[in-house]
Every structure is written in structure tokens, then in C-alpha cells.
Amino acid sequence: MARLSNFPQFANMVHPPERDQGRKGLGLNVEAHPSLQHLFEKNDNETVGKIPFNLIPKANFATTKANQRIAQSITKKKQLKVEKPDIESFADPSKNPYFDPNLAVESIAPKSRISRTLRFNKQGKYIEQANQMRTQARLEKLKQEIADSVKKTGMDVELDLVSDMSVKKEVPPNIEWWDAPLMKNPEIIEPKEENINFDTDNGSVITIYIQHPVQIDPPVDAGPPPPKPLMLTKKERKKLRRQRRLEEQRDKQDKIRMGLLPPEQPKVKITNLMRVLGNEAILDPTKVEAQVREQMKSRQEAHKKHNEEKKLTKEEKREKLKKKLMEDTSKVVQVAVFKVNDLSDGQKRYKVDINAQQLYLTGIVIVCPTQCMVVVEGGPKGIKQYKKLMLRRIDWSDSKKLNTKNEGDIEMDEEGESENPSISLTNNNDQDPSKEKKENKCCLVWEGTIKERLFKNGFKFKQCPTDYKVRETLEKFNATHYWELVKNYIEPTL
């Protein structure tokens, strides 16, 4: 096999020439590229360290992967040196190398925390803030809905819905557009009878016909009224009683003849003693008189015993009265709404409460500083008696009170319900002498029928200092419309 040394072109590869010992450590022994000559422009005798200026220096680290792994394993990890912090330089921010004096303020150094005292919030503070936020949210939602509806209708005009000009109403015209066809000359400011157009041939709206609106069916069908019993005179009632008793006596006599009943003993009295007994009374009148008196006594005791057996007990009397007062309200419920200016008198509150309970009526009494509302639900008879109480029997103008001492407001539970409606309650009108006290009255605002009761938990008192509290209370029973009726009620002046 031929060797590479036999070939002259490979001789240097097999036997490389020995490197000059004088040039040991001079890098790769390759001149620099001409484009890098300006980096090495020095004097001829100058050298960079021990390397001539025109030679590329050799790297002082391993370039192969194998040598790099060995170098990494040999390197030792330096231990972290913990030095004491410079507290003064830390306290002085101006010594910080990243400190910018242009952004400096009067107090640069960190301040110590100042201790604060406890601050207690008043009751209802955050509830009031939450209510305000809810009101604001509802207002914003309403504005957004109005804006959306305006966009849907195609009205591109910007409407002013918040300023005072949007709230201010325009002055009504002298003649409305719906009244103009009724007038001969709509330009006349004061319409008179001779100006009204009664000519039906020329298309006048006024005719001789009367328009009867279509009747609306009631919410529930009460059914036909029951037939009323025939009213009889006193003489007719006596005659019927006499005939009935005579018929019963004849039936009893027939049963005695048939042997179904034993014969009755003669009803002997001192007055008919001689006529009934005859000879027996003559033979021994003392004995007969004693027997007659004993029979009279036994008949009287039997009569009393019969009456006692028929007499009702206290529980039966109570049930009878309850059955008489309680009416069937499964189909129709009668409702009456009253407006009272002032209910601060405990005596009047007691009458309002106890009569509603005795008549088995349900409802609510709203006690408000401005006005009070009484709502009762029940049968027609109970509502009729309660109306008589509120409108006739109670003297609302009487200013005398049972409780002359000012004992404070009505005691309320967590839901605002009164425990005892007879306790005196302070009124804002009494405390403020500058306000003139209105005449206390009771007015029937509305009376009608509904399908079912709204207040099913009896008759209760509620004290509401504000209109918002009243609405919040009535919303639980879906009865806010009653309060609107009372607020908008105007007493007739006739």
C-alpha cells in the first residue's frame, strides 16, 4: 500500500514543518484583512502586547464544543458576598444613581405612617348611598331606553329630555284641534253657544244620537243574587205559629191512640185541682195538694233543664258570632280605601284596629307625617259596618287625646309593624309650631271589588316617614296604586 509521504503534494500534511519557537503565542500567524488595516495602524516597532500589530490575535477561550464543556466544569462558582447596606444612602434618595432632580418634590424621603383613630359610620349611610346609586342607574337606563325608542322611530332630531325646557309645558291654545270641527269659526277666542255648529247635514260631529259604551265584564262572576225571604206581618206570623202547633198536637194525639206513645198525665195546678181530680181531692185534699205542688215543681225543673241544655257555651257562641261575621270572599272581595289627615290619637287608632279585627277584615294602615291611609278588605256586610264607623261614628275633629304625655313613636319591629296601635305617636305637625295644623277628616277615596285579597296576614299598622318607604312597603303586596289614589284625591267642595 502506497504511503502519503511518497507523494510530494501531501508531504507537508504528513510531516508538517516545525513551528518557529520565536513566534509561539502569536495567534493564527495570519495577516489581517485589508479592510481591517485601519484598526492596526501603529508604528512599525509597536506591538499590541506581545502580538504584532498586523496579526489577528488568538481568542483566549476554547472554540470547540468538547473544550468548552471541559472549561465549564473546571470553572468555580463564586460565592455571593453579602455586604452591609448603606442606610444613609438609602434614606437619601439624591444618592440614588437613578435619581432625577427634575422630578424631585418637597418631601422625597419616605415618611412614617401616622396612626389614625377609629371612625364610626352613621346607621343607614351606605344604604342611602346604595339607594342613590340605584336611582341614578334607573334614570340612566330610562334615558337610554328613550334614546333607543327615538332612534327606532326615525327621529334624528336631538331631543332635550333633561333640561327645564323639556319639563316646562306649553300654554294650551284657546281652542284645541279636536274642538275645532265643532265651531263655526274656530278663530273666535271665546266660544259661545251661537258659534257651535249643530248642522248635521253639513257634517257636524254633534248629532242627536247618544253613544253608549260597551259594557266590560267584571273580573269575576258573582252569580245571581239569592232570593229574599217573604216578609210577614206580626199577625201573619202568629197565625202560622198557631197552625203549626195545632198540627203537631194532632200528630201526637194520633200516635197516642195507636199506642206508639204513652198517654200524657193531666197538667194539674192549684187553680184546676178540684175540676181535674174531683172526688179524689175531696177524700184527702192535703195529700192531693202536696202531689200537685210536687208535679208543678218537677215541671218547672224540667223546663229549666231543657233551657240549659239548649243554651250555647262560650265557644259555641264565639263560633256562631264568627260564622255570622265571616263572609264568603272566595269569589269577590270588597275593598274600601280611606284617607285620614292625622292618626296620632291613640284612642282613634284603637277603634280603627279593634273594629277591623272584630269584623274579620284584613288590610293595612299607613301612618305618614303628611297623611294616613286605611285599606280594608272583606265581605259586603263587614265593609258596610266599617264605613259607618269611619265616616259617622268616629269624631275625627275631636282633638282630645287619652295619652297626654309624649311617649314617643309607635314601637315597631324589624319590618316596621306596630306591636300596640294604642301607643301615642308623635306627629311632625305637632312638633313644628310654624305649620298650621289641618282639620282632621276621614274621606272614602275608593270602594270596589277585587278577585282575591292582597293583605292576607290580618290587619296591621305600618309607620312610614317618607314616600319612598310607603312605596317600598306596598310593593310587597302589589298595592302601590292605593297610595296613588290617596295622594291624588281631591275632596269634593259641594
UniProtKB/TrEMBL annotation:
Tell me the GO BP annotations in alphabetical order: mRNA cis splicing, via spliceosome
Compositionally biased region (Basic and acidic residues) = 245-256
Q: Where is the composition biased (Acidic residues)?
A: 409-418
Biased segments, Basic residues type:
235-244
Residue ranges, annotated region (Disordered): 1-26, 217-256, 297-316, 404-436
Q: Signal peptide location in the record? A: none
Gene Ontology terms: cellular component = U4/U6 x U5 tri-snRNP complex
Which intervals hold domain Pre-mRNA-splicing factor? 96-313
Q: Where is this gene product found?
A: Nucleus
Renumbered to this chain, the Polar residues biased-composition regions fall at 419-431
Location of the Small nuclear ribonucleoprotein Prp3 C-terminal domain: 336-485
Q: What is the protein name stated in its UniProt record?
A: PRP3-domain-containing protein
